[in-house]
Design brief:
This protein is of the alpha/beta class and 247 residues long. Helices cover 33% and strands 20% of the residues. It has a six-stranded mixed beta sheet. It has a six-stranded mixed beta sheet with strand order 4-5-6-10-7-8, with helices on one face. The protein binds zinc ion.
Length: 247
Amino acid sequence: MRYLVLTDIHANLDALDAVLKDAGRFGYDHILVLGDLVGYGAEPNGVIDRVIALEPLVIVRGNHDKVASGIEDADDFNAVAQRAVSWTLANLSPEHREWLAALPRGPELVDPLVEVCHGSPFDEDAYIFSELDALRALRASHRPVCLFGHTHFPAIYRLSDSRFDVSMEPTETPADIVLEEGWKYLMNPGSVGQPRDGDPRAAYAIVDETARKVTLYRVAYPLEEAQEKVIRAGLPEALALRLAAGR
Ligand code: ZN
């Protein structure tokens, strides 16, 4: 089985389409979506339509999906993110809002090897940034491979009975991570629609269960077009600028 893993698309249809085209070259059987389909970008309805058409095997909701569908308030979002939430609430079609509101909370078990969540396996909204967070997540995970998003940073951690390997960040892409026996892995492919690791290219991963490896990919997309749509939509200019910076 080969899974295409998508997270934090954030209403960036240009980035999503570039990823689908790129991943199509390598091939996959099913799609896993780790939440935050909307928020920040200018095409929430377009992204949701595309994701529905892809018929993901498993999908979990993100914090932006919750506030954009009105099932949670955005009190703890910063000012720019709150403006994006208001814009998304106003621009989502009622059908799309309902669909978003019905997305399941993670973690979700995909198969005997893989589990997915938005933030962490112990709390869908928790950010895994520190070694301590990662260790807690690895202990809480139910499968040898736990995939997460939310931070918009590619990251790889692993835990065995005697060792904990931290922040094995990919230094070049594509990056192959071979799944060794006796280890639990915790991996973030990075964000499709709003990378924050300084690389503006869209990020995604493919899990190959037969070959027992996970590959992290980056692909350039027409980001000027995504920026223009953000400006034209009346969303904060900062959201267009950060796409080019990858921050
Ligand atoms: Zn996000």
